[in-house]
Amino acid sequence: MRLSSNVKPYVLLLIVGTFLLLGYVYFNFFSERLNRDILIDEDQKSTSLSRLVFRSRIRNMVSPEKLLYKQPSVLVGRTDVVSVTPWLAPIIWEGTFDPVLVDNIYKPMNLTIATTVFAIGKYVRFLQDFLDTAEKHFMVGFNMRYYVFTDRPHDVPSVNLSQGRHLSVIQVPGSNRWQEISAQRMEIIQTTIERQIRGEADYIFCLDVDSKFHAHWGSESLGRLVAVIHPGYYEQTRDRFPYERRPASTAYIPMDEGDYYYGGAMIGGFVEDVYTLAKVCRTQFEEDAGNSIEAAWQEESHLNRYLLYNKPSKVLSPEYLWQDFKAKTKEVKVIRFSGVIKNYAEVRSNV
């Protein structure tokens, strides 16, 4: 029997519809069976549902057109210092970057930088100079959010902040032992990132309050995970580093291992990367505490252990963490950030 030309389109639609229906039934049958056969661990399910979301992301290095700067050279530059690690992370020294070029690359990204600082007990007295000098030298021209953790919120000074820069005061418990304050720092940073910072900032720096800025500290310091070389040990060999040497501690580093000795007064990077660092160090702290162990230099010991096996993507030279009592050496052309001279017996309760 021949079908008329008017009927043929309807027959084709009927055939196509039949195949689609059979495919739908087939797919649902096997999907249901597959779901019955594969068991999902409840902890894994909970973790995936509660995964944190961060603002940080890698961006292209776009330079503005017609920006004038000194031509770089592959033959002329600093020869008195090493400016790259064995794993090819840059070590930032004066003379190894162009601050105008770097800031002009990063500023159009409209980044927000978070800065955490702990002003516990008598350390609140250092907050005024820290904030005043930060406004002059630290990430000038960038959106900034300071997070001040203190047990004395009423003693936090009033500071004139530039446009796009904000300060939040977060009250935390005090302590009679400075070692306990050091131990709590990682936990507080971790929880504050979870609750607040991850939705407000792209990068984060965790700095010591008993310090002052003296010169430009800009976007040359930005990276996924950023550490600073301790000024007291950059000329020493690894066997002289004050790592935690007891195998019973989770901060343990063997005598024949180690890259640099990193200062605990500065941790930086993507919010997500610093969050992971803080979370791991906190877990190690708690494990040591459960075994009645306190690492040699508390959080700094755990930080150095973490950075040995999780290499920083950028390393800041001692220019970014000097000490006021220490004379400037020939390698250090400029001091950008430095710990102030203080009487530890007076500002620390248990010293």
UniProtKB/TrEMBL annotation:
It is a single-pass type II membrane protein. One of its GO terms (molecular function) is hexosyltransferase activity. It holds the Pfam family Glyco_transf_6. UDP-N-acetyl-alpha-D-galactosamine binds at F118, A119, I120, Y123, D208, V209, D210. Keywords: Glycosyltransferase, Manganese, Membrane, Metal-binding, Signal-anchor, Transferase, Transmembrane, Transmembrane helix. The active site is at E300. GO terms for biological process: carbohydrate metabolic process. GO terms for cellular component: Golgi apparatus; membrane; vesicle. It is found in: Membrane. This is Globoside alpha-1,3-N-acetylgalactosaminyltransferase 1. The gene is LOC110538061.
